[in-house]
Amino acid sequence: MRKSLVLSTACAVVALALACPAMVSAQPDAKPTLLVLKADSDKLSEKQAQSILKETKAGIAKYEKYVLMDTPEIDLLDEMVTYECIEMDAACLSAVAEKHKAGFVLYTSWDGTTLTVRLVDVGAKTLVGEHVATPAKGKVEQEVTGAGLVKVFGPLPEKPVLVMVTIDANVEAAEVFINQKRLGTTPLKVKLKPGAYTVSVRKKDFLMVEEKLQVAATETMDWKASLKPIPVQAEKPVIVPPVKPPVTAKKDRKDDEETPFYGTWWFWTAVGVGTAAIATGTVLAVTAEGEQPPVGTVRFSISPSAAENDAIFFE
Question: Are residues 116 and 48 in the same domain?
Fold first, then answer.
């Protein structure tokens, strides 16, 4: 059983060791904690000490570098005795702050003549910033929250100036995109930092309008987009090819010409029949006087072109 317990403990230690690198690597992304101590002075009233503490925290918050911790009610003289400190140096302040699990600690002292402001890295137990000054009477708070913070933390970051920009369009509820990010619909009011921006306004059935805007820090800005409808393409007319007449055989040119009546077959047939009748009548008339009529053959053609060949043959 003792072996199992030892083995389990060893496994837990190994698992913790493997997990530590991940925990350490994620730590730099988090802001360090900062413990701000109340001013160490018997020359300040409680009200003055609380006011300096409040204004100091407000000034540090502007840097946005630390997570400010609640200030505990502690007696620094007792802390020095506890940790056997001769003065509130980096080692002593680190010991006090470690008890409250702070990453950094800010200490302020005022003896009526000299003002001291110290920033200590608790983990490294080192002094990372210090300001020592002799402020004018009644100017202790201004010295701490002004030159003191700048000397310890660096120049105060400038608050960015935001400019009110109004974006509109000639159509309602058009979508507004700034640097490819949709921010709303027209009319739109938005606060922007000074600089260059790509603004596009879009709406269905309209051509998109895009333009680069230069926002200045000195004045507000109004910009209106003029959207045009997307041109509607007219439908192309359907062209129907002409219908070709059916191909028919050409008629004989002779059939197209009008044939005179004397050139028709029936005319010459009638002529032939008439001629035969006349011939027959003549023969009958001659034979009426007692002579025997000749016997022959009547021949005629139905073709007008052969009509000259028509004749009567007697035997």
Answer: yes
Distances (CA, A) of 135 to 88, 113, 144, 146, 245: 21, 8, 9, 11, 116
CATH for 68: 3.40.50
By residue count, the chain amounts to 315
Residue 238 counted as domain residue: no
Quick one: average pLDDT of 236-261? 63
* DSSP E strands, the chain: 33-36, 67-68, 104-110, 115-121, 126-133, 163-169, 175-178, 181-185, 188-192, 195-202, 209-215, 221-225, 296-299, 311-314
- What lies within 8 Å, CB to CB, of 263 at 6+ separation is 304
Is 180 a domain residue? yes
**What confidence tier does 45 reach under pLDDT thresholds 50, 70, 90?**
very high
Which pLDDT tens digit goes with each residue over 93-121?
A: 999 999 999 999 999 999 999 999 999 99
Give me the amino acid identity at 216.
Answer: A
Separation CA 106–CA 151 (nearest Å): 13
pLDDT at 262 over 60: no
Residue 220's domain spans which residues? Answer: 163-225
